[in-house]
Design a protein that fits this description.
Layout lengths: L7 H14 L5 H24 L4 H14 L15 H13 L5 H27 L2 H13 L1 H7 L4 H17 L5 H17 L4 H18 L1 H4 L3 H28 L3 H20 L3 H4 L1 H24 L4 H22 L14 H22 L13 H16 L8 H13 L5 E3 L9 E2 L7 H9 L6 H7 L4 E3 L8 H10 E5 L2 E8 L8 E6 L3 E7 L2 E2 L2 E3 L2 E3 L3 E3 L2 E7 L6 E5 H5 L10
Parallel strand pairs: 1-2, 1-3
Antiparallel strand pairs: 3-5, 4-5, 5-13, 6-12, 7-8, 7-11, 7-13, 9-10, 9-12
Helix pairs in contact: 1-2, 2-6, 2-18, 3-4, 5-6, 5-8, 5-17, 6-17, 6-18, 8-9, 9-12, 10-15, 10-16, 13-20, 15-16, 16-17
């Protein structure tokens, strides 16, 4: 017999049980929260498909491709990140294979990591305040644009943030012990294996821990100094295990110098060059005064959080998380990590929204109990729901999910796979072609451009294109490419599809003889002379020409059997694969 549908009473009972479990004010708040969670997941999936790809995503995927093909990071390709993220996803890449849609696949594979991060946010909110605060923290941070759009991308920062949230979850999960400190230290060590920006986390904990002891009081904690020292030592020792293992691995592979340069020397030097003058260096007195005032305010807030907590354990958790957030923010703004970037923030937001949710719900409940209606007919308990709805509107307004802004990257990968073979070199800025070897080692981003501008890095991109016989350029000719390189690329390559250029030149007839075309070849390769979709007959350097011909660097002469306008010399494989510059010349 078919099962009967649940009755209205049964459905009502389920909603009420859900509201009771999460400590919500009633069935209406449970239904509202459930709608927001479903909407959050739906919006995330829609934006996975439609939100523009960041250049960092293809850069990281190119490093993953290198590991999957037997290259060694730092030695064979340049990268200024720690290697754990790329090593983790190399087997996944092997399963997916080379396909134009691989960036979509990688985004979807990151989706479970987001749910784990959401669970950590909920768990931390529950430990600090309540299940209700945990649920609303997940909703608020999930819709917050600065977190929402970064957390759906294929980038190191999302694995980095996840390990950090797991570390905090472990630390908050019970009474402090050496065993708990060992687990948390190991998770922080994994953070370091993903990004050296984890120094911000370590500093935050080293600042937050003593401040927490100070505002709560060691006597109230009920812990001896020797026990606290033992836990701190266990935490610090295990934090070193994973990054030490990474360093030892590359040292044994003979890659220590390359590893040190890419991860340490380059990041520190380039960040200083790109970061500009720091306020605290140019105005030390003002900066010191500002820091002392902010630090005093933070200590006062932390003390109030601890004082209004029901028990010492709750006081420790709340004060610790608050001090971690405050010290992380101050360390970031004071440029402990030299270069400010939007991708430094994801680990910060979940903890901040936990605090915001807990405090906001506490204040709204107090106002509701006191029957104070400071906003007219608006119920205080609905304020957090209004904030979530406002975030939804803001996210959709900033990036309408029905507009597909990923097509250009997918088209580029499709064209690169169709036009080139694994043996071909390409020129791109950061690894946009993903599946092909780059001819120019440095990654052309803000830090590298600053180094090139000051002469720290030599811009030998034109010579590298010639030496490696690179016939494909896959990038816009943007400002981050030097003027000399930009001129070279415009002179030696013709646009054939989107941001794709191939070696070739537009031929101009001699003023004295319309059948004669003199031109210069810079990139040695096999070329054909074409007109629209036809191969042109004539003699090339005095030899009959009716197909592909290898041409070395230097001057060449083509004498045609007929007069032509818009005659092109083009890399022969591009002709064979129907990539032509007609109507694409810029």
């Amino acid at each position: 017999m078919p099962s009967e549908r649940p009755t209205i009473a049964q459905r009502t009972s389920f909603v009420q049980r859900g509201a009771d479990y999460f400590g919500l004010s009633g069935p209406a708040e449970f239904i509202t929260a459930a709608i927001f969670v479903v909407l959050m997941i739906a919006l995330r999936i829609a934006n996975l498909i439609s939100y523009r790809f960041d250049s960092d995503e293809s850069q990281h995927l190119h490093v993953v491709w290198a590991w999957a093909h037997g290259f060694v990071q730092y030695r064979d390709i340049f990268d200024n990140h720690m290697p754990l993220f790329h090593i983790m996803f190399a087997p996944v890449y092997k399963l997916i294979g080379e396909r134009p849609a691989i960036l979509y696949w990688m985004r979807f594979i990151m989706l479970p990591l987001y749910f784990v991060a959401a669970w950590c946010t909920y768990r931390i909110g529950t430990l600090l305040f309540s299940r209700r605060a945990g649920i609303w923290a997940v909703v608020l941070v999930g819709f917050y644009p600065a977190y929402h759009f970064i957390s759906l991308q294929f980038r190191t920062d999302n694995v980095w943030a996840l390990f950090w949230l797991l570390c905090v979850t472990v630390l908050m999960g019970g009474e402090l012990s050496a065993r708990r400190a060992l687990k948390a230290g190991l998770l922080l060590g994994l953070c370091f294996a993903v990004s050296m920006k984890s120094s911000l986390f370590l500093v935050s904990i080293l600042v937050a821990a003593p401040l927490t002891v100070f505002v709560v009081g060691r006597e109230r904690l009920g812990q001896s100094w020797s026990h606290l020292a033992q836990c701190a030592a266990a935490f610090l020792v295990t934090t070193l295990i994973v990054p030490a293992a990474v360093i030892i691995f590359f040292a044994l592979e003979g890659v220590w110098r390359d590893f040190r340069y890419c991860v340490f020397d380059f990041n520190v030097l380039a960040s200083r060059l790109a970061g500009g003058e720091l306020f605290y260096k140019s105005h030390p007195v003002v900066a010191a005064a500002f820091f002392l005032v902010v630090a005093g305010i933070c200590v006062y807030i932390g003390r109030q959080l601890a004082r209004h907590s029901a028990n010492p354990g709750l006081a420790v958790r709340r004060a610790f998380v608050f001090f971690v957030c405050a010290s992380y923010f101050l360390a970031l703004e004071s440029r402990l990590w030299p270069l400010l970037s939007h991708d430094n923030d994801p680990p910060f937001y979940p903890l901040v929204f936990v605090l915001i949710s807990g405090v906001a719900l506490g204040v709204s409940d107090r106002l509701a109990r006191q029957k104070r209606n400071v906003l007219g007919n608006l119920r205080p308990r609905s304020l957090i729901q209004i904030a979530a709805a406002a975030e939804v509107v803001l996210s959709v307004t900033m990036h309408p999910f029905w507009k597909n802004r990923t097509k250009s990257e997918a088209d580029l990968l499709r064209d690169v796979l169709a036009l080139t073979t694994p043996a071909d070199y390409v020129f791109d800025c950061k690894g946009e072609t993903v599946f092909r070897t780059r001819c120019f080692r440095p990654v052309l981003e803000k830090m590298t451009v600053a180094c090139i501008r000051t002469g720290v890095i030599v811009d030998n991109a034109p010579q590298r294109c010639i030496d490696t016989r690179t016939c494909v350029v896959a990038t816009e000719l943007k400002k981050r490419i030097s003027l000399n390189t930009r001129r070279f690329l415009k002179h030696c390559y013709l646009p054939v599809a989107g941001n794709l250029r191939v070696a070739g030149a537009e031929l101009q007839p001699s003023s004295a003889d319309p059948y004669r075309f003199d031109f210069e070849v810079v990139i040695p390769a096999s070329y054909e002379i074409i007109y629209i979709d036809e191969r042109v007959r004539g003699t090339l350097d005095g030899i009959p020409c009716n197909g592909a011909r290898f041409l070395g660097p230097g001057r060449h002469t083509f004498e045609s059997e007929s007069t032509f306008q818009n005659l092109f010399l083009l890399w022969a494989p591009a002709v064979d694969r129907h990539f032509t510059p007609y109507h694409r010349v810029s």
